[in-house]
Structure formats: structure tokens, C-alpha cells
Amino acid sequence: MPGPSQPAGAPSDRFADGSRLSAALGDWQERWRKATTPPTCSVLLTRAEEQRLCVEASDQLTQVKTRAEALDRSHDTLRDAAELSRRAARAAKKLSYRDMEYMGTQGLSLAPKSSASAGAVPSASAKPAPSAKPSGSGAPDAEAPAGTRRDDPYQPLVRAYGKLEVEALRYLGAFLELGPLPTRKRALGELTTLWEEASRPSPTLQQIVRQAALLESDPELKARLQKLDRKSHLVPPTPSAR
Fold first, then answer.
1. 35, 49, 51, 233 from 38: Cα distances, Å
2. Hey, what's the torsion of the CAs at 139, 145, 148, 153, to 10 degrees?
3. What torsion, rounded to 10 degrees, do the Cα atoms 22, 23, 26, 28 define?
4. Which residues 6+ apart lie within 8 Å of 7 measured at CB?
5. How many CB atoms lie within 10 A of CB 207?
6. C-alpha span between 176 and 186 (Å, rounded)
7. What is the pTM of this model?
8. How far apart are CA 50 and CA 83, in angstroms?
9. Which residues, in sequence order, are CB contacts of 11 under 8 Å at separation 6+?
10. What is the DSSP secondary structure assignment for residue 36, as one 8-state letter?
11. Helix/strand/coil percentages in the chain, nearest 5
């Protein structure tokens, strides 16, 4: 017979003892130990307010690693993980924007090569002059021929901060899937806030919510997850998805 605190027919919480979460946090402890601080943005982002985005993300990573090392499962850990995802996403977004500007500038710098001659039309067998290099020839790839993709200094940083955002979300996902019911509810609260803040929730965030909705046994929490998951079908595709 169900105990006095458990209504008849109510599903039991198979994660109530916290053992599954403890095992997952042990794995995450090792993963965060191996996580390296992303490269500084000070060379590529020249504005102080933009550089601060990367500094804040790195500082938050230190905070999360400290909590993970202590196997902390408090609400503060959930808030810190959510904040790491938030800050890393902001840094990656700004770097992506500056990267688009950079690539546009690099594309324009190749245009004068076809029109820089003083009106003379070279013969088909003529070799290009050795001095006909694009501007900024001090770059490592300055001698790359037209049409060859140049090294993009922004992409390693975009990937690094993007990966940090994803790892923070997956860390939250462990609490959402494997924690006792109160912990799962708090984790969903943090993820819901991230969802509502984003104009377009990331695929990782959508995947975490969808998977948790499938696994959840508590009727009330499952309904909240399914409601949030249904919103993903209303998210418009990215502009480039054609």
C-alpha cells in the first residue's frame, strides 16, 4: 500500500535517492577538469565591452568547475551552469558577427586583383606579377590564390565558446533527467528561462527538453516539458536554411 505521503496510483520517483545523479556528476567532474579556458578575445575584439563578454564567460567557467569539483548539486550550481551557457552564447554570437564582417572585408579585398591593371589586358599565357598580392600580405595566408579560403582567425574562438555553451546546457540536462524531482523542476526552470531569453533556442536546448520529456515519469513535470517542446515546432528556421 502507498504511504500516507504518496497518493494511491501516484508514480514513484525512481531518481529520488539521488544515486543516478551522483554517478552522472562524477562523470561531469572529470569532464570539467579537462575543460580548458577558451582563448582570449582581446586580439580580435577591440572594444572593451566586447572583450568583457569573453572574460565573463571564462570567469563563469571557473565558477562552474569549482562547483563540479565539489560535486555540488545545489540550486546555485544550476544557476551557475545556466549563466555559463548564457555568457558563452553571448561571446560566440559576438565573435560570429565580427567574423562575418571580417569575411566580407576579405572578400572585397580580392576584387581589385581583376581591375588593378592600368587598362592593359594581359594575354592568356601571361603569368601574374609576383607583386600582385592582396592587401594585408602580412597574414599567413596572404599568398593564397583567389578563390582559396583564407584562414579565419575568428572560427577557433567561435567554436570554443560555442562548445562551452553546449557543455553547460548538457550539464544542466543531467540534473533535468537524473536528479530527484525537486532538482528536475529547478533545472527545468533554468532551462525555460534560457529558452525564453533566446530569439531562437539552440538545437542543443531543444534536444535536451525533448529527450527529458520522453523520459520524465512525473505527470506534472512531463506536461511542462511537453509544452515547452511543442514550442520548438513554432521556432522559425535559420535564414540560411534554404
1. 9, 18, 13, 33
2. 0
3. -100
4. none
5. 15
6. 8
7. 0.76
8. 17
9. 217, 218, 219
10. P
11. 60, 0, 40
Q: Cβ distance 37 to 58 under 8 Å? A: yes
Centroid of chain to Cα 75 = 22
Spell out the long-range contacts of 124-130 with Cβ–Cβ below 8 A and sequence spacing 24 or more.
none
Q: C-alpha grid cell for residue 13?
A: 520517483
Locus of grid cell 502507498: 2
Per-residue pLDDT of the chain (242 residues; tens, 9 = 90+): 444 444 444 468 999 999 999 999 999 999 999 999 999 999 999 999 999 999 999 999 999 999 999 999 999 999 999 999 999 999 999 999 999 988 888 754 434 444 444 444 444 444 444 444 433 433 434 444 444 355 889 999 999 999 999 999 999 999 999 999 999 999 999 999 999 999 889 999 999 999 999 999 999 999 999 999 998 765 555 554 44
Cell of 123: 594575354
**Could you identify the residue written with the cell 555540488?**
72
